[in-house]
From TrEMBL:
Belongs to the peptidase M24B family. This is Aminopeptidase P family protein. Residues 7-138 form the Creatinase N-terminal domain. Residues 533-593 form the Peptidase M24 C-terminal domain. Residues 310-524 form the Peptidase M24 domain.
Length: 593
């Protein structure tokens, strides 16, 4: 199993033993998580792909890997094209590809704990046209051939204090109970890990960079709940925190608990609960209602304590990043830095705050051509030296008890040529346009995505990722349901209290990448003469934007005014936290245009 070719061959042999003519390997876990524990990294183990979103299909004579535009370059660098076809999403899909490539009458396997019921229905319909069938497996064949597959994490749960949460777990359970009563339902299944962490005010360390614990939960209309988690992960402090109204069970007992809900009306989320959950409820005789998990929207709309915590975390994180940018300005000209050493130093600056719990994702420390890979992940084998003549893109963030941060800055190393300055300024103009947006209550993220792209589009340019994602409170750095995107979502109405990223970019394959990212808070906005409630954004992130990359000739007076005001805010928030040479550098970096 030392090569990916051997692993692919072994899987095909296992499929032959299992009487399957193919198998689908998604990058997720039993909770439909974006980021997963090491035990669930089946796609990476099988193919070598290190991105955070993708799927693969293995057939007897061919195999394909499916990624979106963020990973077009990355997948070609990490996955052997002699073994795998590269397929682009949303131009195609796993279901459509199976419909075209599966053998007539074939049996295609899937793990029902790793797919939604909607996906199962879609794939089944595509296969049915060829007389092929989709077959649920009891044991994942990848697990059967993965000899050193890691065990799920045994890390303890910890209590997330109400000071940071803003509301008690009891209050949250009561809100869910009221929601169930309104819908004449008895119970709701919570399977999304961040929903469980938020609802019960607990956190964990089972998924790298995301403070969640592997668990399931049932919340009932009487405001009691059942939590399913490995017993060795529960401490006396957590038991005391949960109280008598929350019964704790072994995670292994969850499927049996679903079977025991016969005759009950049970809500399950069709996007976040896997097909196996729906199938088990159906077999057990429950009446299943497909509705969105009630914690999703409540979690997305931050309360006053969470907003205050975010502001504090952003101010602290902005100071760490500003210290780093000053350090970079001194060290980069020496030509001795690498992408990896730079990322390690940024981590140290965040650690020096004394408040960092973890990074919020693996730092994207990307120089030159690696910057053109939107979700590049630096490794020893790919780490480039940071030298004069191109751009350095650093996308990073921290997990703090009071908030989760995510910020991207693009820095000129040496004197940038006119093309780089032009592209950077077009991205900046889009960033400013979105930051300044004022829109009616009820506006969806997809309706304002164009604001960030308009200047790129006018020049025949674009970027292949969304403009904004939701962000949690000491939770997932990618949080739904809110998004700013023209594809893959973006249809959720934006509401006051939601936090999103504002991150337009531009990527020139093989040469450089640009992205400017701040986090923003949706807030109510008073507009003179307005005939309906209006919303806008408050920028939460504070770190200087590289002035040497700005082409002032294509900036309007209003755009210059926005940047000057933003830099004045950076100086006011971050400046008091710095001293000496770092503070002097910040004052220069934030000087009016």
């Amino acid at each position: 199993m030392s090569t990916y070719e051997a692993r692919l061959s072994a899987l095909r042999e296992q499929l032959r033993k299992d009487r399957l003519d193919g198998f689908v390997v998604p990058l997720t876990d039993e909770h439909m998580s974006e980021y997963v524990g090491a035990y669930a990294q089946r796609l990476a183990w099988l193919t070598g792909f290190q991105g955070s979103a993708g799927s693969a299909v293995v057939l007897p004579q061919e195999a394909a890997i499916f990624v979106d535009g963020r990973y077009t370059l990355q997948v070609r660098e990490q996955v052997d094209g002699n073994l795998w076809h590269y397929e682009s999403v949303p131009q195609t899909s796993v279901a459509a590809w199976l419909g075209a490539h599966a053998a007539d009458g074939g049996r295609i396997g899937y793990d029902p704990w790793l797919h939604t019921r909607a996906w199962v229905d879609q794939a089944s319909a595509a296969l049915a046209e060829k007389g092929a069938t989709l077959v649920a497996v009891d044991t994942n064949p990848v697990d059967a051939i993965w000899p050193d597959r890691p065990e799920p994490s045994k890390a303890h749960l910890v209590v997330h204090d109400d000071i940071y949460a803003g509301r008690s777990a009891r209050e949250k359970r009561q809100d869910i109970a009221d929601w169930l009563t309104e819908r004449k339902a008895d119970s709701v299944v919570l399977s999304a890990l961040d929903s469980i962490a938020w609802t019960f005010n607990i956190r964990g360390a089972d998924v790298e960079r995301t403070p969640v614990a592997l668990a399931y939960a049932l919340v009932h209309a009487d405001a009691t709940a059942d939590l399913y988690v490995a017993p060795e992960k529960i401490s006396d402090a957590v038991i005391q925190h949960l109280g008598n109204a929350v019964r704790v069970h072994d995670r292994a007992d969850f499927a049996d608990a679903l079977m025991a809900l016969a005759g009950k009306t049970v809500v399950a989320d069709p996007e976040r609960a896997v097909a196996a959950i729906f199938d088990t409820l159906d077999r057990g005789g429950a009446h299943v209602v497909a509705l969105r998990d009630p914690a999703v929207l409540a979690k997305a709309i931050k309360n006053a304590a969470e907003i205050a915590g975010h502001r504090a975390a952003q101010a602290r994180d902005g100071a760490a990043l500003s210290r780093y940018l000053h350090w970079l300005s001194v060290e980069a000209p020496k030509g001795e830095l690498t992408e990896m050493s730079a990322a390690e130093r940024l981590h140290q600056f965040r650690q020096e705050t004394g408040k960092l719990k973890d990074l919020s994702f693996d730092t994207i420390s990307a120089f030159g051509p690696n910057g053109a890979i939107p979700h590049y992940r630096v490794e020893a084998a790919t780490s480039l030296p940071i030298v004069a003549g191109s751009l350095y893109l650093v996308d990073s963030g921290g997990q703090y008890l009071d908030g989760t941060t995510d910020v991207t800055r693009t820095i000129a190393i040496g004197t940038p040529p006119p093309e780089m300055r032009n592209r950077f300024t077009l991205v900046l103009k889009g960033h400013i346009a979105l930051a300044n947006a004022v829109f009616p209550k009820g506006t969806r993220g997809g309706q304002i995505d164009v604001l960030a792209r308009q200047y790129l589009w006018a020049n025949g340019l674009d970027y292949a990722h969304g403009t904004g994602h939701g962000v949690g409170s000491f939770l997932s750095v990618h949080e739904g349901p809110q998004r700013i995107a023209t594809f893959n979502g973006g249809d959720e109405p934006l509401r006051a209290g939601m936090i999103l990223s504002n991150e337009p970019g531009y990527y020139k394959p093989g040469e450089y990448g640009i992205r400017i990212e701040n986090l923003v808070l949706v807030e109510e906005r008073a507009v003179p003469g307005a005939e309906q409630p209006m919303l806008g954004f408050e920028t939460l992130t504070f770190a200087p934007i590289d002035r040497t990359l700005i082409d002032l000739s294509i900036m309007t007076a209003a755009e210059r005014g926005w940047l000057d005001a933003y830099h004045a805010s950076v100086l006011a928030v971050v400046g008091p936290q710095l001293d000496g040479a770092a503070k002097a550098w910040l004052e220069s970096a934030c000087a009016p245009l």
